[in-house]
Amino acid sequence: MSPQIEGKVAAIIDKYTVAINVGLENGVEEGMQFKIVVERGVVKDPDTDEEIGVIRVPKAKIKVIQVERKMSIAESETYTKLSPITASLLASLPPFYGSKEKKELPISEEDLQKAETLDRTIKVGDKVVQVLDQTTIEPEAEAEAEAEEETETT
Questions:
Q1: By the 8 A CB rule, do 119 and 149 touch?
Q2: Bridge pairing between strands 51-67 and 72-76
Q3: pTM
Q4: What's the rounded Cα separation, in Å, for the pair 107 and 3?
Q5: pLDDT given for residue 114 in this prediction
Q6: Which of helix, strand or coil describes residue 55?
Q7: What angle do CA 23, 26, 32 make, to 5 degrees?
Q8: CA–CA distance, 53 with 32 (Å, rounded to integer)
Q9: Cβ burial 25-64 (10 Å sphere, 16+ → b, else e)
Q10: Which residue, 7, 36, 37, 120, has fewest beta-carbon neighbours within 10 Å?
Q11: Which numeric CATH code is attached to 6-79+121-153?
Q12: Which candidate, 34, 14, 23, 38, places its Cα nearest to that of 121?
């Protein structure tokens, strides 16, 4: 397996499309998927204080639609958005037809307060990381982000 391709958002083209600073020279091919991520800091082992990794939180997932020598154009994945009527009908069905929900962890309020709030807006200079599992991009993350935005604006 070849190494994971990493780059940065080089330009914002429109609400759905970005240019990234990796292209043919870096092994990018049309159809490849990337995540735009924010790095939230280094994780240290609580016993040894050794740095064991970096937390990367995805802001969005994109798919390459055009590849140039040193850059690529990528856009957000398309998915079917349910009409309000369909969504309400699905919500009334038994849970095996419903959506997945995350169970909240019983975490320390003190540690939670130390965590900074996440800015999900995409900016020039944001890191992009190739998605090595090239299965279809799940719309769940986008739906969660939309729900968060609606909650924040109300």
A1: no
A2: antiparallel
A3: 0.65
A4: 35
A5: 59
A6: strand
A7: 65
A8: 25
A9: ebebeeebbbbbbbeeeeeeeeeeeeeeeeeeeebbbbbb
A10: 120
A11: 2.40.10.410
A12: 38
